[in-house]
Amino acid sequence: MKTKRLLIAGCLAAFIMPMSVLAGNVSAGKEKSAVCAACHGQTGQSVSPDFPNLGGQHADYLYRALLDYKAGHRKNPIMAAQVESLSKTDMADLAAYFAAQSGLSVKR
């Protein structure tokens, strides 16, 4: 019975463990974000309504979005090409960088 409980607890912990455990490096993310700036702005505040603001979003959300673009669960040809060569570490770093930025919106 004790073994069964430990097994269930272990499975649940692995399943619901927050993605923030894969904490990204903000400094590394800043270096990697140069390509992103063309559409999303240097600090994640887009100057065009065609592209979403990334600054101030939750890192877990941004990381999941990047994973979903790479896996094809989110459909966008521009983003699919951008994430094609990114590793999970790259995505975690980018998510950490943009999450650390101000979420204040800019006038468009």
Automatic annotation (TrEMBL):
Which molecular function terms from Gene Ontology are attached?
A: electron transfer activity; heme binding; metal ion binding
Keywords of the record, alphabetical order, are: Electron transport, Heme, Iron, Metal-binding, Signal, Transport
Query: What InterPro entries does the record tag this protein with?
Result: Cyt_c-like_dom (IPR009056), Cyt_c-like_dom_sf (IPR036909), Cytochrome_c_Oxidase_Subunit (IPR050597)
Entry coiled-coil feature ranges: none
Q: Which SUPFAM superfamilies match?
A: Cytochrome c
Q: Which domain of life is it from?
A: Bacteria
Domain Cytochrome c per the UniProt entry, residue ranges: 24-102
Q: Which residues form the signal peptide?
A: 1-23
Q: Could you tell me which Gene3D superfamilies the record lists for this protein?
A: Cytochrome c-like domain
PANTHER family to which the protein is assigned, alphabetical: CBB3-TYPE CYTOCHROME C OXIDASE SUBUNIT FIXP, CYTOCHROME C4
The protein's name: Cytochrome c
